[in-house]
Design brief:
- With 562 residues, this protein is an alpha+beta fold.
- The chain folds into four domains: 107 residues, 3-Layer(aba) Sandwich (Rossmann fold); 70 residues, Dna Ligase, domain 1, CATH 3.30.1490; 208 residues, D-amino Acid Aminotransferase, Chain A, domain 1 (2-Layer Sandwich), CATH 3.30.470.20; 120 residues, Vaccinia Virus protein VP39 (Rossmann fold, 3-Layer(aba) Sandwich).
- The chain is built from 19 helices and 24 strands.
- The protein starts with a strand and ends with a strand.
- 44% of the residues are buried.
């Protein structure tokens, strides 16, 4: 069985392993950590080992795992001994080595003489300039003073400062003033680049203001095609960085997307790309599309292949593999742009540093119709820094549904939780309920809401009442869905529970209401729910209930209709 080499299978690149197995080849991973200085490698040893363990855990088939040798020549000889059918970059850190190996082995790859145009942010815009395409003016700088000088020379009040080579939003600063540009350069000079080297110079560019898109293209024997288009929504941090909020697919090739697609194909040619896939990031403003940067590897974000298949009928790593194994077939004709479903992935923005002891995120997301998968920690305790870039995101939530409105409405629920009710996603236990609320007069609740038909009362202790079924947490499984009214009368039960345990009990109880029925939470129970009344309303929305306005003597309760 012939081998296929994956250089640095990070993020979405781990999907290569199964794609290779399905095609009847043997996957072989090549780690390139030899490029990192030993003193830096020592600092990140634990992180590197954890990353490797996480990648391995995500793989059903466990590939042979190789380490690059001390010299390139030794590495080339080792790889040659495996007689590979292809060499593929699995992440940004593998692009250089993968293309050098592919070229020297006579395999489909990209000309190494043009790698600066494909990998360096200054080089790619020089290539666009030479090709007569729209490009962003920029300059390599080594000091804050040079940042100020660039802004003054071009009369710019806004700028972008970033490392020459990076991935995601690492080291990216969007600056609203010349002073911010100088401060950003000071910060970058204290950072390490994606290969673990101290950063000694950076790129400053004019800042383009518009909507940011992803256009993923594939190339086979120098013929370029569009694979998929996505649009970013990001948020600027108080520190001047930029964090990913969510990324959604462009379902229809409208006028804007068509402009982007045409320009992206020209970009692929301008940077001399020939084989594989490009993850390109673009801006669209009143002047049209313009390149931010190209990354000559699959799109990041750890996108599961199954998620992408649901959204668009195929996934990028499989397409990348096909460009190497069957280039003539892919280059032979156009492919229509089509999306099967609305898809997006939400990056969890941690608003401030937190020591999480519980993860109610999982109880929340399993109740949402559009959530396909969650990439996040499940057990703790765990430390979360404040989100400042993609690497410090609290996790990723992948969402897909036939009805786009379901995806978008549930996305807004998650964004509200993130901004106002974060303890319902990641809990540090500091908002734990320590004493029960005041006892409610359940008979009065039943009367003022005119509860009739099939009525369920869920409380701390089992009681009997004619005309209603009464359950406790221990006997909840005795009740089956189909109630006209569900009354949540828990008090002592909710005290001392972990947030995830509390949510599970409340969700499981509310789920017993029939379509068109009502769920009622009286004030005593509201006092035992994190965030009180507002928290209870959010829980109802999560489970799909519609809130009803209450007035008069009913206004102290919360009610939702299924």
């Amino acid at each position: 069985m012939r081998n296929i080499i994956i250089v640095e299978p990070g993020s979405t690149g781990y999907n290569f392993v199964e794609d290779i197995v399905r095609r009847g080849y043997n996957p072989v991973v090549l780690e390139a950590w030899k490029d990192v200085p030993p003193e830096i490698l020592a600092l990140f040893k634990d992180e590197i080992e954890k990353t490797r363990a996480d990648i391995l855990a995500a793989m059903y088939h466990k590939p042979l795992w190789l380490q690059a040798k001390e010299s390139y020549e030794e590495t080339l000889a080792m790889v040659r001994s495996y007689a590979p059918a292809a060499v593929l970059p699995g992440a940004e850190s593998g692009v250089l080595l993968a293309n050098h190996l592919g070229e020297d082995l006579g395999l489909p790859s990209n000309p190494t003489v043009h790698l600066p145009a494909m990998t360096r942010k200054d080089g790619m815009h020089e290539a666009l300039k030479e090709a007569g395409l729209r490009y962003i003016r920029g300059r390599k700088i080594k000091s804050p003073e040079e940042a100020l000088a660039f802004c003054e020379e071009y009369g710019l009040d806004m700028a972008v400062v970033k490392p020459l080579q990076s991935a995601s939003s690492q080291g990216l600063f969007l600056c609203d003033s010349r002073e911010e540009a100088a401060e950003a350069m000071e910060k970058i000079l204290t950072m390490l680049d994606m290969f673990g080297h101290p950063i000694k110079e950076a790129l400053i560019q004019e800042r383009i203001v518009g909507r940011e898109y992803v256009v993923n293209t594939f190339s086979a024997a120098g013929v370029h095609r569009i694979n998929d288009i996505w649009v970013y929504t990001k948020e600027k941090t108080p520190e001047g960085g930029y964090v990913y909020d969510y990324t959604e697919n462009v379902e229809v090739l409208d006028e804007a997307a068509s402009q982007l697609a045409s320009y992206a194909l020209q970009v692929a040619e301008a940077v001399h790309f020939r084989n594989g896939v490009i993850h390109g990031e673009y801006m669209l403003d009143e002047k049209g599309p313009i390149l931010i940067e190209v990354n000559c590897r699959p799109m990041g974000g750890g996108n599961p292949a199954e998620f992408l298949d649901l959204v668009q009928g195929q996934h990028e790593t499989d397409v990348a593999l096909e460009t190497m194994l069957e280039p003539q077939r892919l280059a032979g004709g156009e492919r229509p742009y089509r999306m099967l479903r609305k898809g997006l992935f939400k990056n969890i923005i941690v608003p401030q540093e937190i020591e999480a002891v519980d993860f109610p995120l999982w109880e929340v997301t399993r109740r949402l119709k559009s959530v396909f998968k969650v990439n996040a920690k499940e057990t703790g305790p765990a430390h979360y820094p404040k989100t400042r870039d993609l690497e410090t995101s609290g996790g990723t939530i992948f969402m897909v549904h036939d009805d786009p409105q379901v995806v978008l409405s549930e996305l807004e629920l998650l964004r509200r939780l993130e901004k106002k009710f974060f303890q319902l996603l990641l809990s540090d236990g500091k908002m734990a309920v320590t004493r029960p609320g005041a006892a409610d007069d359940i008979e009065a609740v039943l009367k003022k809401f005119d509860c009739h038909g099939a009525v369920l009362i869920a409380g701390d202790k089992l009681q009997e009442r004619e005309g209603a079924q009464w359950v406790t947490p221990d006997t909840l499984s005795d009740a089956h869905k189909g109630f006209d009214y569900v009354i949540l009368a828990y008090r002592e039960t909710l005290v001392g529970l972990k947030e995830s345990e509390r949510l599970k009990l409340l969700f499981d109880t509310m789920a017993l209401v029939r379509e068109g029925g009502r769920v009622i939470i009286p004030p005593g129970t509201l006092d035992c729910i994190t965030y009180g009344r507002q928290g209870a309303e959010m829980l109802m929305l999560i489970i799909g209930l519609q809130l009803e306005l209450l007035a008069g003597d009913r206004a102290d309760c919360v009610m939702g209709r299924a």
